[in-house]
Amino acid sequence: MSTLAHTMMTAARSTDSGLAGPGELDRYPFAEAPVTERVGAPVWESAEPELGRVGRRAAGNRGRGLHGQLVQQLGQMIVSGDLGADRPLVPEEIGQRFEVSRTVVRESLRVLEAKGLVSARPNVGTRVRPVSDWNLLDADIIEWRAFGPQRDNQRRELSELRWTIEPLAARLAAGHGRADIQQRLSDMVEIMGHAMAQGDALTYSRADAEFHSLLIQVAGNRMLEHLFGIVSSALHVSGGPVTGCDRPNDASLGHHGRIADALAAGDGTAAETAMRQLLTVHPEVERVVPAPREH
Question: Number of helices and strands (H, E) in the chain?
Fold first, then answer.
């Protein structure tokens, strides 16, 4: 095994140290009137129990502290429909419900506003925006949709977008070969092979993600490179229709190897074909390739 493969596999096995609890935070001065007396206030008590405090680790949390955890939880609740446009998001109530400071709530709502999920207006307050206003290419929103009620649609849409982006990137990358990138791609295939042999799914997925990232970067198209977040999110979203990247096996590894070989040879057609074969849904799944949908 190469030094790179050994290093990457060792790093992938390291465990996450976890996140600290809320600690000693400044709290909101709670209003004397109960929350339920507010007209149109969110019924926080109806939320999932695990969304009760931001000190708890949320699914998919990226280790960004209290601020990141609150963004994660509120975002999940908005995308799942638990927080609808008909109910205002009152900062004081959010702070009380999730036991965080005024600063944490304010910064979290700003992040959600930047993603198009909420809007804050004078005399109106902060409210959830319609889906048409959401930044659906945002990596967080992709993840929240993929693990919420819209999971099937999100995974289908991701699969279709990958079919649009990655075969083109593979063809373009064949004309922009660089020795260092070619070696790195080969290294990732080697790492994936060792990881698959050892049943190390985490290392395999990380090497897979880097392989696809490198390929899009070397395509020489900045707009395609900007869209890598879509591919990265798709690689980290499991379930639903699966592609060769979702189920490590000899065929998947072989397709990755053929892509790397075609890029090294400067054969754009072969690289594009191998990528399409890699992205083809497995035979046991009903649809083999993304197809037009009936309306």
Answer: 12, 3
pLDDT at 171 (0 to 100): 94
- pLDDT at 95 (0 to 100): 92
Q: In this structure, how many other beta carbons lie within 10 angstroms of the beta carbon of residue 19? A: 17
- Predicted confidence at residue 69, as pLDDT, reads 92
Among candidate residues 261, 262, 249, the one with its CA nearest the CA of residue 204: 249
- Interatomic CA distance for residues 287 and 246, integer angstroms: 15
Residue 133: the pLDDT is 93
Which residues, given as ranges, of the chain have pLDDT below 50? Answer: 14-41, 45-63, 239-242, 282-290, 292-295
Q: Where are the beta strands (DSSP E) in 69-113?
A: 88-89
Q: For residue 293, which phi and psi values (nearest 5 degrees)?
A: -100, 150
Check: CB of residue 140 under 8 Å from CB of residue 71: yes
- Note the Cα 259 to chain centre separation in Å: 24
The token duo for 124 is: 């109106």
Q: How far is CA 232 from CA 63, 182, 189, 225, 294, in A?
A: 18, 20, 17, 11, 28
DSSP string, 121-159: ETTTEEEEPPGGGS-TTSHHHHHHHHTSTTHHHHHHHHH
Amino acid in position 199: G
pTM (whole model) above 0.90: no
Burial (CB count within 10 angstroms: exposed 0-12, middle 13-18, buried 19+), residue 42: buried
Long-range CB contacts (within 8 A, 24+) of 122-127: 125/88, 125/89, 125/90, 126/88, 126/89, 126/90, 126/91, 127/85, 127/87, 127/88, 127/89
